[in-house]
Amino acid sequence: ASSAAAPLPEEDCMKLNPSFLGIALSSLLAIDLWASKRLGVCAGESSAWGSARPLMKVIEVSGHGIPWLFGTFYGLCQSDSSAAREVLLNLLFALLLDLVLVAVVKGLVKRRRPNHNKMDMFVTISVDKYSFPSGHATRAALVCRFVLHHLVLAVPLRVLVVLWALIVGISRVMLGRHNVTDVLCGLLLGYALYSVVEHCWLSPLSAPALFALW
C-alpha cells in the first residue's frame, strides 16, 4: 500500500487557501456589520440615543415612498401649468421606477436587516424584510438630484435639500434599519437612477397619451 497521502478534493483546497478577494470581502462585511451596530444608536428606546428615536422616525416618513407618490400625484392633478405637469409627471415616473428597481434588487440579494432593527416601520411590503439597498436612500438621492435640476431654488434651500438626503441616509443606520453599505449603495443607485430618468424624459412629444390625461 502506498504511504502517500491522497490529494485533497478541489473544494477543500479552496477552503484551505481562500482567495485574497474572498478574505477582503469577508473583512469588509465584518467591518460593515460592526460599524452598523455601533452606529445604530436609535435602534430602540433603550439605545444610547433612544430619546431621539421619534425624530428619526419623522425623518423616516419624510423619505418614505407613499407620501412622495401621493404628494406628487396630487400636485399633478392640481397643477394648471403645462411645464409644472411635465416636471411632476416625470417625478412620478422616477418614484415608480425607484420602487420597482429597489424591490427587484432586494428580492434578488435577499440581505436580511440588521439583528438590532425593530420592525416598526411605516407601511411596509413583503420585500421590506430585506435591507439591500436602502429604498429611503435611493429615493432621497433621486429626489435630491431631481429637485436641484428642475426647481429654481435659492442657495440655502439647495443646501437644505442636499442635507435632507444625507440625513435620511444616516437616519437609516441610526434607526438600525440598514447596514452602512445598504445606505451607501442606495445613495449611489438613486444618484445613477436620475440619469436614467433624464434619458427617458417624458414630454408631450414622446408620450402624448400620458399628457392627454391631464
Q: In terms of topology, how is this protein built?
A:
Elements: H1 10-16, H2 20-39, H3 53-62, H4 65-78, H5 82-109, H6 135-150, H7 155-174, H8 180-199, H9 208-212
Helix pairs in contact: 3-7, 4-5, 5-6, 5-8, 6-7, 6-8, 7-8
Give a description of the structure.
The protein is mostly helical and 214 residues long. It has one domain (19-212): Vanadium-containing Chloroperoxidase, domain 1 (Up-down Bundle). The protein has helices at 10-16, 20-39, 53-62, 65-78, 82-109, 135-150, 155-174, 180-199, 208-212. Helix 5 (82-109) packs across helix 8 (180-199) and helix 6 packs antiparallel against helix 7. The N and C termini lie far apart (87 Å). Belongs to the PA-phosphatase related phosphoesterase family. It is an enzyme of class 3 (hydrolase). Residues 87-198 form the Phosphatidic acid phosphatase type 2/haloperoxidase domain. InterPro entries: PAP2/HPO (IPR000326), PAP2/HPO_sf (IPR036938).
Q: Quick gist of this model?
A:
By secondary structure, the chain is mainly alpha-helical.
Number of strands: 0
Give Rg in angstroms: 22 Å
Based on the structure given, which CATH architecture is correct? Up-down Bundle
How much helix is in the residues? 55-70%
**Secondary-structure element series:** HHHHHHHHH
User: How much β-strand is present in the residues?
Assistant: under 5%
Structural classification: mainly alpha
CATH topology title? Vanadium-containing Chloroperoxidase, domain 1
**Termini gap:** 87 Å
CATH class: Mainly Alpha
Specify the overall morphology. globular
- Uncertain runs with pLDDT below 50, 5 residues or more? 10-14
Question: What's the multimeric state?
Answer: single chain
Largest sheet data: none
Number of continuous helical runs = 9
- Please indicate the count of domains: 1
Protein name: Polyisoprenoid diphosphate/phosphate phosphohydrolase PLPP6
Subcellular location: Endoplasmic reticulum membrane; Nucleus inner membrane
Enzyme class: hydrolase
Membrane topology: Multi-pass membrane protein
